[in-house]
Design goal:
three-stranded antiparallel beta sheet, 3 strands, 67% helix, 16 helices
Length: 383
């Protein structure tokens, strides 16, 4: 499969770069986004408005962005890694000051007629910044406690700002993605085991700072039947919809829970439930398989990369997709608490779509420019 989508000749021209692009990634992104358009069309009762048409336009813009980013030299993205991170961090600082409020949360910055969610951008900004950090850091310092302070601060600062918005789900994903990058960079497992043990005692410090609705979600996760008409309503309706889909589903436009508006947030957080109700277990498994192929393709590029920066960017984007998919599906099936994580390239949301496409473009750049010399000092692989 790899030979069909990956060419080994070094790129010298635009045509050469196009030949070196791992075309399986754009193809999979288009297919998954098309599934999202169809799902949003069905969610709206067979209408392109208000979600499907905009989603299709954003997907087209995202694919264009992906290819444009992929054709840029990888050394360019490494040079701007830290400024990009600091810019997005400054945007997060600005959110509580000048941000727009929706549904009781202040998470967006107004950009003309549009709005931008900096927390989504931070996911890819953190991946690129950490990859840059470990590009030049010698291997013998990767697990040194002193050299761990900087990457931990780079993870903690945006996570704390996002948590105050409040956006627990995105904060968790930022921390999880950052820690995954540290592990892939070669940080010793001892630190992760110690952190996991310490987090048990850290929970009681975080609990008082959570919003009431966040506490209710966590308590409902532990006891789903405690409040079936309140905090447990979302997950109860989601399970009903999943069960009613059966093996082959109720058919396109045939979902009762979604079409009769029993299913909340059906165009964003719970779109997988709507899709599974209409396509059944077979359709849901097929969609998961598409994500699995996409993640494997990202890991293929990571494995072929010749510098730590390229490896960690590709592996970090793979981790982003894997975390998004697993948390979203786990959330709607009751395996994890409801924390508001979108399904990549399918849930309605402009910033999330463009951020993920941008991340895929970075990986395409790592593929098309794998022979470029971008090293700072030694360029040995860390994993």
């Amino acid at each position: 499969m790899t030979s069909l989508f990956y060419r080994s000749r070094p790129p010298q021209t635009l045509a050469g770069k196009l030949l070196r692009i791992y075309w399986l990634l754009p193809i999979l992104a288009v297919v998954i986004a098309a599934v999202g358009v169809a799902a949003l069309y069905s969610t709206a009762g067979g209408r392109f408005e208000p979600w499907a048409a905009k989603h299709a336009m954003r997907a087209a813009l995202g694919v264009t962005l992906m290819l444009g980013v992929g054709l840029m030299p990888l050394r360019f993205w490494m040079r701007i890694a830290n400024p990009f991170y600091l810019l997005v961090l400054a945007m997060l600082v600005a959110v509580p000051l000048i941000g727009q409020s929706q549904l009781g949360a202040r998470r967006w910055l107004g950009v003309g007629e549009a709005s931008l969610q900096p927390a989504e951008l931070m996911k890819i900004a953190l991946v690129v910044a950490l990859a840059h950090y470990y590009q030049w850091l010698p291997r013998d310092k990767v697990s040194h406690p002193l050299w761990l302070l900087t990457p931990l601060a780079m993870i903690a600062a945006p996570a704390a700002l996002v948590l105050k918005q409040p956006d627990l789900g995105t904060a968790i994903l930022i921390v999880a993605t950052g820690l995954t990058l540290l592990f892939l960079a070669g940080v010793r497992p001892f630190y992760f085991i110690s952190g996991a043990i310490a987090s048990g005692g850290f929970g009681h410090l975080v609990w008082p700072h959570l919003k009431d609705y966040q506490r209710r979600r966590l308590l409902t996760f532990l006891d789903p039947d405690s409040d079936p008409l309140g905090a447990g309503y979302h997950i109860a309706q989601s399970k009903i919809a999943l069960g009613s889909g059966g093996v082959h589903g109720r058919g396109f436009l045939g979902g009762t829970q979604s079409q009769l508006n029993f299913l909340p947030e059906k165009h964003t957080d719970f779109i997988f439930t709507m899709f599974a109700e209409e396509t059944g277990f077979v359709g849901a498994l097929g969609l998961i398989a598409l994500y699995a192929v996409l993640i494997c393709a990202l890991l293929v590029i990571a494995n072929r990369a010749r510098t730590p920066f390229a490896r960690l960017v590709a592996a970090g984007v793979a981790a982003m997709f894997a975390l998004h998919v697993s948390v979203n599906i786990g959330m709607v099936t009751g395996l994890v608490p409801v924390v508001g994580v979108p399904l990549p390239l399918i849930s309605y949301g402009g910033t999330s779509m463009l951020t993920l496409m941008f991340g895929l473009g970075m990986v395409l750049s790592a593929s098309a420019h794998r022979d470029d010399r971008i090293s700072i000092g030694k360029t040995r692989a860390f994993w």
